[in-house]
Each structure stands twice: as C-alpha cells, then as structure tokens.
Amino acid sequence: MQFSDFGHIFVYNNTEQNLAVLQNVLSSGIYQTFTTGNIYQFLQYAKELSPDLMIFNLDDEKKYSEETGASFNQQIRLTNFPIVLTKPHNQKFSVHSRVAHYIHLPLEIAKLQDIMESYCLGHKNHQILFLSEYRPQYDRLHRSLDIGGYTYFEVHNLEAAEIYLSKNNPQTVFVEYNPKLLTARHHLQHNRIFYVDRQQDITEIEKFLN
Asked: What is the DSSP letter of 93?
C-alpha cells in the first residue's frame, strides 16, 4: 500500500452502519484512509505505515474480545498513534489509557472532524490544549469555556497531547490537576502551561486567552 502526502487515517469498522456515518468526512479527498474489520491486518499495517490517527468504531467491547481473542485494551497497548474511540450516542464508554478521544456518533461528528484536521493537517490555532482524564460529566470548567466562546482541543492521553503540540499552535495549555497527570507538564513543550481544576471557572487565567 502506498500513501500520498495526505493525512493518513486508519479506521477499524465493525459495522457498515458505523462507516456510513463517517463517509462524508472521510470522502472529502483531504485524507487517505485504510478501513478494515480485520484487527490483525489493521494493527500490522499501522506498524508499517504510521498513520496520523486511528479510529476504532467499537459498539460492543465484549463481542470484540470474543471475536478477536483479546481485549481492546490488550490490542492497543503497544500503539504509538492517537486513538479515537467511537460509539453510538446511547452507549457509555469504558476508559482506556491509550485512548486520546471518545466520540459519540453521529452527534459529535464536528468534533471528530476537528480532531482529524489537528492530527493530519496541523496548523490549528485553538486557544487551549486541555489535557484531562476522560469523564462524561459536563463540569464547571467546560461550561465556563463554552460560555466564553473559547476554542479548545481536549485530549485524554499525554502522548497524543505531545503529537498535537508538534503540529499545532494553541495559545496556552491546561493540564487537569489530577494525580495521574501531575508530571505531564514536564513533558509538554509550551511556554504557558496551567494546572486547572474541573470545578473552577477560568476568571484567573482569562487574560492568557485573549
């Protein structure tokens, strides 16, 4: 398989319905995609071709484990690429340390498109890169950012945050004040990094976002 200079996206698709949701975005001509339902082929090609982004459509993790003979977490533990896990809007996510983004389709298709552009094309100028632990709850910090109209790129994996920073230019970086992430700021190359609490508003740091 030969890849062009377009963004390279691998999609693990376990149903045709899932792929149909993504088709409008993936068929734009901006990205070169590889799609398969064979997990072993998927991971082997990823090692050889180094995609910019891996998207896993995973409706049923138990069924996935039964079909592949290994858990999803076991399959992705050695990958070095940003991973997006997608599920239908009515399903809850299991949290995995190697997953950078959790997307409910089709409701969050615009968010997925922003993720694809950021990793594949780069040169995005979000006001904030926000490294946080994934939680589905809508908290005070997110509400404050949304009310203020700030653009932010949220990621739940340190390695993916580093890749994002290598290609994009946020004004500042937020790191959730969380035991799992306390050392993260020492790995991120940026001159404005702040620890934030998910229950705070952003009054104290708004001056850095304008």
From this structure: P
